[in-house]
Design brief:
Distance between the termini: 80 Å
Largest sheet: none
Helix content: 40-55%
Structural class: mainly alpha
Radius of gyration: 27 Å
Length: about 80
């Protein structure tokens, strides 16, 4: 049996799987903070739910303040004119 008669196994390229994972960024969390605040102000939560919402909001707010502190106008970067 010569080399031409031998079956050659060629690895076919495997189609890449969709490796994109859901992304959630700081701006998404900041928007969520605004959404929760607005919903509370509009009375979207019942009395029995508001303590859990408030506790979650406080944790979210503390996290955002730690990773992306809010800039005051004096801290905002100056733009070149």
């Amino acid at each position: 049996m010569d080399n031409q008669d031998q079956a050659q196994t060629v690895a076919e390229p495997v189609a890449p799987q969709d490796q994109s994972q859901p992304q959630l960024g700081i701006s998404d969390l900041q928007n969520l903070r605004i959404i929760v605040d607005t919903a509370v102000k509009r009375g979207a939560f019942g009395a029995g739910e508001i303590s859990a919402v408030g506790a979650t909001f406080d944790r979210l707010n503390a996290f955002l303040n730690a990773v992306a502190p809010t800039q005051t106008p004096a801290q905002a970067p100056a733009t070149a004119a």
